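Q: Make up one entry.
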Amino acid sequence: MENTQYYMEIPLTRGLVAKVSPHRFNELNAFKWSAQPSRDTFYAFRKSARKKGSPRVSILMHRVILGLEAGDPRHGDHVNRDGLDNRDGNLRAATCRQNQQNRGNSRSNRSGFKGVSWHEKAQKWVAHIRIDGRAKHLGLFLSPEEAHAAYRVAANEHFGEFARSA
């Protein structure tokens, strides 16, 4: 198994670096990579070579590492949600749904816990989860920690390795 503590850095724009597994360094460092901001992280990308009559397209480093060709509907998922951590052990191919399951809290979350919100009418904390695009109520609780524990159980049961509870 690869030592995930050891990595090499590829410089990007904005003063950032991408972490890559050592055996990938020479292949990837042959290109000039940039940092592309996303919702709550950055991703390493480069532009394709110029071809007469064709526009240049963005190529994401993590898709190159995973071997996801243009047109492949799968996503590259960063296990630790750091879009610049492109070490082999931190990347996995995922469906769109699996990729969403690995998301963190929404910006509007006030409880501090994923899957937990305040139920004004009941004056309790409510746990909820989305499974196959449908919201599922997990119960009402006296504390946000209890509600989050119920969310974690459901997330692990339904999402497996893609479950993200924070």
